[in-house]
């Protein structure tokens, strides 16, 4: 009798735990809030029913350029910028998510307002790319890229694009300029 009561209780606990709602601001490798790596453009209204979806058609649609989709909350504040994998295709999945709103955070509390130290302390840095005006810190565990303006670096590291930037070169206080999740 006691064993069957324990089994029933464990089953109920598992059912309750499985029904916890998804945090609309949680960022992980496969999702940003309710948006997943398999969400199609045509389903965005289902994912963001209370938010505004702004699709910009820039230039000539015959060029095949990808057009960003902006997600705005009910007050008009920008939350995300989405880039579909294919231009002008409603069945295309989202390829890149730029996180604009600082309420979006990873399981280790990394947000757009975090510093390089927070990233380095919580995730293994996979790669650092040296660009003209910025560096891009890639974290494969999240499918994430963090762009840091070179103005955050010591002056001797800002000009030479051939210089291999290491994590030890980046000041702990360096701020994130852009936060992207990359899928596909």
Name of the CATH homologous superfamily: protein yfey like domain
Q: What number of structural domains do the residues give?
A: 1
State the share of residues found in helices, binned by percent: 10-25%
What is the name of the CATH topology?
A: protein yfey like fold
Low-confidence parts:
7-12
SSE string: HEEEHEEEEEHEEEE
Biggest beta sheet attributes: 8 strands, antiparallel
Into which percentage range does the β-strand content fall? 25-35%
The backbone outline, from C-alpha atoms, is globular
The averaged pLDDT comes out at 87
Count every helix, treating DSSP H or I runs of 4 or more residues as helices: 3
Count the E strands. Answer: 12
**What's the CATH architecture?**
Sandwich
Q: SS-based structural class?
A: alpha+beta
